[in-house]
Amino acid sequence: MSTLLLITSAPTSIHAWHALGLAQALHSKNEDFRVFFYQDGVSVANELQWVPDDQRNLKAEWQKLAIRLPVCVSAALARGICDEENAKRHHLKQHNLAQGFELVGLGELADAVQSTDRLLQF
């Protein structure tokens, strides 16, 4: 059974951490799953978001999974997160998309929804 984890909660939300926990469990059991970061969930991909040393870093935890981490490009740009390509296109001085994350369109979410057995939103 394939699972799509749609992460719409901000990184400071307990729901975002629950999404990571489920992803880690599915990954450890070699279950088929995908993730998609949308709405406030895209903030996890911000390389410039600072996390104190005494707290767990959600971005780093997602990166450790070494899976594909698609992020909605429109939601990301609206929240000040962009990759190098979009920084050039929109004449921004810098980019801040964290390594391992990639900006994609909503068409990818639509495809994922159609090809999965269950969808869980966090």
TrEMBL record:
Main location: cytoplasm
Gene Ontology BP annotations: tRNA wobble position uridine thiolation
Record's signal peptide: none
Keywords (A to Z) from UniProt: Cytoplasm, Transferase
Subcellular location: Cytoplasm
An example Gene Ontology CC term for this record: sulfurtransferase complex
Family annotation (Pfam families): DsrE
Transmembrane feature ranges: none
Name of protein: Sulfurtransferase complex subunit TusD
Species whose genome carries this gene: Acinetobacter faecalis
Gene, per the UniProt record: tusD
